[in-house]
Amino acid sequence: MAAYSEYKVEVIQDGGCSTLLFGSGNIPVEKMQNVINKYAKDGWTMVFQLVETRRFLLFWSRQAVLITFAR
């Protein structure tokens, strides 16, 4: 297993408008790809990913992806 000396965590979440209008939203895949590619170009490696459901306002919930990068 590789030893890393630096870590970064990026949070990507779905939009609040789609959650309000449709009751649920989707993770923006293109945004997630852009973030992963940006960090990869800078020498970062994705080491962990977690999908989390967060409360939004009173009645809604929305998803967020937490991605951990290391180098």
Largest sheet: 3 strands, antiparallel
Number of strands: 3
Taken from the alpha-carbon principal axes, the silhouette is elongated
Query: What is the strand content?
Result: 35-45%
Unreliable runs, pLDDT <50, ≥5 residues?
none
| Helix proportion | 25-40%
What is the radius of gyration? 14 Å
Structural category is alpha+beta
Write the layout of secondary structure elements.
Layout: E1 7-13, H1 16-22, H2 29-41, E2 45-56, E3 60-70
Provide a descriptive summary of the structure in words.
The chain is 28% helix and 42% strand. With 71 residues, it is α+β, with helices and mostly antiparallel strands. It has one domain. A 3-stranded antiparallel beta sheet has the order 1-3-2, with helices on one face. A hairpin with a 3-residue loop joins strand 2 and strand 3. The chain is elongated, with a radius of gyration of 14 Å. The mean pLDDT is 81.
Which descriptors would you attach to this protein?
71 residues; alpha+beta; three-stranded antiparallel sheet; 2 helices; elongated
Summarize the structure.
With 71 residues, the chain is an alpha+beta fold. The protein has helices at residues 16-22, 29-41; strands at residues 7-13, 45-56, 60-70.
